[in-house]
Amino acid sequence: MLSFVGLGLSRNDISIKAIEEIKKADEVYAEFYTGRICDGIEKIEEITGRKIKVIGREEMEDGRDILNEAMTKKVCIISAGDAMAATTHVELRLRAMEMGIETRIIHGVSITTAAASALGLQIYKFGRIISLPRPYGDYFPLSPYDGIKENVEAGLHTLILLDTENEPMTANEAMEILMKMEERKKEGIFHDKALIAVLARVSCDDEIIKAGYLKEMVKMDFGKPLHSIVLPGKMHVMEAKALVEIAGAPEEIMNGL
Asked: β-strand 103-106 against 53-54: which pairing, if any?
């Protein structure tokens, strides 16, 4: 049997169902290249009483050792957020099903829904989620900018997920990258008065939820990652009020709604 378990965003988000699934597994693996919890895997080991082996991207994508074990054992793969947030997991599940291995999903809280809830924005008004990779060398993709622009032109909010490879990207680094993209594209998306919302360590005890203009936000200290960014689109009056009251956005964003 092969179980995919979502941990949520912090140790306190893990469900009773998830704890029970981890406890009864013969082998427990964790992958965190698609996302991480803000407390660390040690806290999950304390809660479940199980030793958890963290595996790398290559081992997860190859999957052969995992599938071979799952033929005779109860194998559990845990990840941050929701269990099926990564396409690699879907592909591995399909391979398991083709081999006649029973599969199970234990869902968890995901930043894709938590971001909207934390800011008071309406989730059905979000457009395509954008992943922002860290540039290196001559590699500086502009496709994230184009995706954000499509959402902006449709009046939709944009959730921007930041690179977690090696050292997780901070919101400040992400805003600097977005401004460099603006310098190249020059299409007026990321200007000084662009409204930006930053979510830091969502669901953790020290979470920070802040909204403001890009010119000021890029200078702020949001503490350690994990960070995410939301670029609000066309807002209902209650959404704008939520950003002001919950995230400290300038009251003037209410004008003209």
From this structure: unpaired
